[in-house]
Amino acid sequence: MNYNGYIFRLFLRILILVSLILGLVYAIDKDYTSIATGITFVTLYVGYTTYSFVKRRFVVMDDFFEAVKYRDFSRWFPEDRGPKDIRFLYRGFNEVNRTIKDINSQNEAQYVYLQKILEMVDIGIIAYNLETGDVLWSNDSFRETLDFPSFKNIRFVEKRKPDLYDAVFETYHKEPNSISIAVQNEKIKVLISDTVFQVNDDPFKLIVLQNIDDTLNKNESEAWKKLLSVMTHEIMNSIAPISSLADTLQSHLELTLNNPKEYPLELEDLNAGIKTIKNRSEGLLKFAKTYRSLSKVTHLNLEKKKITDLFETIQLLMQPSLDVKNIHIDFKITPPKLELNIDSYLIEQVLINLILNAVDACKDRPNPEIRVLAEQKPNRGIVIKVFDNGSGIPQDIMESIFIPFFTSKTTGSGIGLSLCKQIMLLHKGKILVSSKEKEGTVFSLVF
């Protein structure tokens, strides 16, 4: 232990001090005046050095906690000077400072990251404090839709356009609604949805707004309503956990700083928390890319890709979650050196979507199994197939599964398979499906 030297020296000093006191008592008892006087001075000296020895550590700790009190995590303690135990203490303080600085840096990066993601979305978004009206965040699309410059408080809108303020900010739209608002002396139709969430003790409202005037017929309007619902769900699924997790990490750090012995710093927990924040942000980024892909993005970053590398990446991503659910997955390539000229990110996304659907189909089946097979067909090029022994797809919905926003799941968005079809069309390929209820399903990607 790094503290063994310190404990030994402290124990030795106490032992010497006790011995001197006993010697002093003995000298006084025997009336050895000169010896007693000498022992007294030595005892006082040893007592003073012992006090200084103990006090030194508390001064160092007090200095550190003073820096923490004023959020001064830039302080650096010299690790190469002083006694060994003090240097060890300095190293610990520096490690705490580094960890907190890293967490702050990660949080700032994730905040900027999330901002950029939301700016990518071609839908107006604003979040504001319900009590004060202060704007927490809004994107350009929201301000452009309402034809307003940047504002810090929603009262700015109330003073200039009360009717617009009532329709957008005062009226609650728990379900996506189509409303008409006056902008630039014209009436435009928008889809609007909102939700209320809590950050610490402050209530906030999130509004999602989409201009759909002159662009949607009745069926398209229904599709946009579903899209807004999905986007609100995805955005809240990222913002709320990030805020909550950041608050939890901060609380744990404060407990550690205030009482390090009772609440030791768990770096693994901190690392897990930061990874969770990163994963949630990446999830929202993937959703934004999905939205852009459904908007018929035609640019592909094509590259020659070995299918073995493609499958290894998918297996690395999916294996942990499949192991937890006790679902066996097997990958096979015939012949082993097959290559494809593809946008690897998009095809990875297709395979992940298909495997996740297979997992959902297999979840209540005995001995669930998923097989992913790539093979060279003489007259059809390369085909990648995803097999499962799940519940199968009912025949009455088989023709609808690739329609955007169609879903048979209570929690589904209806984006996954339509995105897979769009990506395969971009690659000048196609996706086929064959399924039997209670036996399983096969999805084939034909290149």
UniProtKB/TrEMBL annotation:
Q: Which residues cross the membrane?
A: 7-28, 34-54
Reactions this protein catalyses: ATP + protein L-histidine = ADP + protein N-phospho-L-histidine
Question: Which Gene3D superfamilies does the protein's record reference?
Answer: Histidine kinase-like ATPase, C-terminal domain
Domain called Histidine kinase: residue spans: 230-447
Q: Which InterPro entries match?
A: HATPase_C_sf, HATPase_dom, His_kinase_dom, Sig_transdc_His_kin-like_C
Family annotation (SMART domains)? HATPase_c
What are its E.C. numbers?
2.7.13.3
> Which keywords are on file for this protein?
ATP-binding, Kinase, Membrane, Nucleotide-binding, Transferase, Transmembrane, Transmembrane helix, Two-component regulatory system
Q: Which Gene Ontology molecular-function terms are recorded?
A: kinase activity
What protein name applies here?
A: histidine kinase
Organism equals Aquimarina rubra
List the taxonomic lineage.
Bacteria, Pseudomonadati, Bacteroidota, Flavobacteriia, Flavobacteriales
